[in-house]
Amino acid sequence: MAELTTLARPYAKAVFAEASEKGALDAWSADLALLAACVADADMAKVLVHPSLTAQQQAQALTDVCGDKLNEAAKNLVAVLAENKRLMLVPEIAALYEELKAQLQNTVDVVVTSAFELSNEQADKLAQALKAKLQCDVRLTSEIDETLIGGAIIRAGDLVIDGSVTGKLSKLAEAMKS
């Protein structure tokens, strides 16, 4: 995973610089999301790593699948990635790009995993508390994992806050063993 990030980072930075310069952050987000979805498809992945296809043929196959939804700059990115045998990095490039975009816009995506569905009031309170703690705008999404028993796990980038009953029981068991 770290190796993929290292390989993808220069491409993500270059795309981000291009998008910032042209004022096309959202357009590039859409293009990269489309490309990432296509590359993640199992059938397309087989085509993109097929040894008998040239880089141009692989790039053409990917751009054909995306149709006319890609702009010329995105098509050029696909060509460069194909030439360098890096097409499989597109999902990682897209993720890194979104991180750079969020930093610029001073936002953070937060995923709250809880045992039960959060009410709108709970979600709003949590979002406000996280906004104050992280000092940026928060985009909150929630997931349900009934195995947590109670409480919640909050993930905001590298920050993970485990307030679940399962997590607390695990910590207690670990402390008792030592």
From TrEMBL:
The keyword Transferase does not apply. PROSITE patterns: ATPASE_DELTA. InterPro entries: ATP_synth_OSCP/delta_N_sf, ATPase_OSCP/d_CS, ATPase_OSCP/dsu. It is a peripheral membrane protein. Gene3D superfamilies: N-terminal domain of the delta subunit of the F1F0-ATP synthase. GO terms for cellular component: plasma membrane; proton-transporting ATP synthase complex. One of its GO terms (molecular function) is proton-transporting ATP synthase activity, rotational mechanism. It is found in: Cell membrane; Membrane. Keywords: ATP synthesis, Cell membrane, CF(1), Hydrogen ion transport, Ion transport, Membrane, Transport. F(1)F(0) ATP synthase produces ATP from ADP in the presence of a proton or sodium gradient. F-type ATPases consist of two structural domains, F(1) containing the extramembraneous catalytic core and F(0) containing the membrane proton channel, linked together by a central stalk and a peripheral stalk. During catalysis, ATP synthesis in the catalytic domain of F(1) is coupled via a rotary mechanism of the central stalk subunits to proton translocation. Belongs to the ATPase delta chain family. This is ATP synthase subunit delta. It comes from Thalassolituus pacificus.
